[in-house]
Amino acid sequence: MPWTVDNPPSPPVGDDWTEEEVAACVAAANAVLEEGGSEEDAIFACIHAAGRNRSETMPREEREIERRTVQVHELRVEQREGERPQILGHAAVFEQLSEDLGGFREQIAPGAFARAVREDDVRALWQHDDRYVLGRTRSGTLSLAEDEEGLAVDITPPDTQWARDFTESIRRGDVDQMSFGFLARRDVWVEDEQGEVIRTLLDVQLFDVSPVTFPAYPQTSVEARNRAQQMQAPEPDRGRAIEILRRRLDLEGARFSPRGDADGE
Predict the structure, then answer these.
(1) 163: pLDDT strictly greater than 80
(2) Are 233 and 239 in contact (CB under 8 A)?
(3) Which of 22, 133, 197, 225 is the most exposed place for a label (fewest CB within 10 A)?
(4) How far is CA 1 from CA 8, 27, 44, 46, in A?
């Protein structure tokens, strides 16, 4: 029996989905089933027609936090007379393609952190180690903002010996990179003219930002790796959901592009 807006596939459809998203999901999923696709392909089509990410529908304990490291232009320490030192820099840079992350490259769209800056309770950690909390947005010791370059951070570390030591390492230039931990709430995947798979992060749930000594090997989620593999598969064997969606974009209510991206892929 086909799905309807009153009886959509659940999961992935949740209470926070808009009527437009549910309609797009149902139309795309039913299209896949009508073409002989599997229920798994139909769910895949549903999620992407709605502009959602599979990780959003998973329980928090099952999600994988991804981490990225950026060589910032400047990670510095400032201290005004009579005030505590502050660590300033950028934890992420917009529209800069990453290295190969295992079958795909990645970039961050301006605005990807806007919701996180407003809503998420983010920690500043030393080397992603939760034993060493340098600051926190909820307590006012970590400030985050999007600027033209990317995600700007302003950390007021605690007045402890370990924090003074870490701050001195940054001041000396011994530590000059930053990393951030996140879950992708919205992203879009495309294959460019050279056949390279590009993932663009549109909205992320942010957990921590961290000064780091070495750029750790990027941690990518299973969901991201699977998506890259699906897009890289030869066309005859490629996921039927993508092929069917592209052939049937005129379905009423179905939208292959992510929410708020009127230009599509």
Answers:
(1) yes
(2) yes
(3) 225
(4) 11, 13, 18, 16
Burial letters 111-150, b for 16+ CB under 10 A, else e: ebbeebbeebebbbbbebeeebbbbbbeeebbbbebeebb
Phi, psi of 215 (to 5 degrees): -75, 105
| Residues 63, 119: Cα–Cα separation, whole Å | 19
Beta bridge partners, 125, equal 133
Q: Can you tell me which residue has the tokens 């459809």?
A: 13
pLDDT tens digits for range 122-134: 999 999 899 999 9
Q: At what angle do helices 19-34 and 39-49 cross, to 10 degrees?
A: 150
- C-alpha torsion 45→49→50→55, nearest 10: 40
pLDDT tens digits, one per residue of 78-98: 988 878 899 999 999 898 888
pLDDT for the residue numbered 60: 46
- Nearest Cα neighbor of 99 from 15, 185, 17, 220 is 220
d(CA 162, CA 201): 34
In terms of C-beta density within 10 A (0-12 exposed, 13-18 middle, 19 or more buried), how is residue 98 classed? middle
| Model confidence, pTM | 0.64
| Domain chopping of the chain, boundaries | 1-64+221-265, 74-219
In this predicted model, which residue has the larger pLDDT, 165 or 193?
165
Judged by DSSP in three states, 186 sits in strand
